[in-house]
Amino acid sequence: MKLIPYNRFQIDTFLSAPEVLKRIQENTSERAFFKPSSSSAFCGKVDETGFDLVGNIRYRNSFLPVMKGKVEANKDGTRVSVSMRLNLFVMCFMLFWLAVTGGAGIYILLSVDTFSLPLLIPLGMFLFGIALTCGGFWFEALRQERKLRQIISTWQ
Question: Transmembrane helix as a keyword (predicted)?
Answer without folding.
Answer: yes
